[in-house]
Amino acid sequence: MTLPVKKMLKLLYPDLVRVDESLVKISPQTDESDKKRIPLTVESLDTRGLYIFDDGFRLVLWFGGSISPDIGRNLLGEDFTSDYSKVSLSLRDNEMSRKLMKIINKFRESDSSYFQLCHLVRQGEQPRESFFLLTNLVDDKNSGAYSYADWISQLYRQVQQNA
Description:
Mean pLDDT: 84
Structural class: alpha+beta
Order of helices and strands: HEHEEHHEHH
CATH class: Alpha Beta
Protein name: Gelsolin-like domain-containing protein
Radius of gyration: 17 Å
Number of helices: 6
Number of domains: 1
Largest sheet: 4 strands, mixed
Distance between the termini: 24 Å
Pfam families: Gelsolin (PF00626)
CATH architecture: 3-Layer(aba) Sandwich
Shape: globular
Helix content: 25-40%
CATH topology: Severin
Organism: Erythranthe guttata (Yellow monkey flower)
Low-confidence stretches: none
């Protein structure tokens, strides 16, 4: 697979951003300062939060298990309690939905060469949660595998030995 360096780096170390706090703010504007990257670990995920995971090819909207029902209802309508694999995200007639769609469009505009589909995942919804998010949290040590920092260190040592 051949990718530009920028796209490859995004795939190797994706963005994880908490967005629920900026959606409930009173101010109508959402700027870049609200979107701070957080570490790619399970401990970073708050059960009351809403996160966007961006690997450059898809966007995953992760809903914590204890997220406010008002947020779910505003973003997904009455479908917020059903199976998220059958729910589609669309613009709704409320401020919270408009803010979220604006944030998602900013992610999509950062690389217009590829339209990123948005997948919805609820905490504890297996196997979707593992497939779309948990296995991609590269700062976590998963079942004895290297964390991202360990993997980079290992890669660096291998390059130095071969040089």
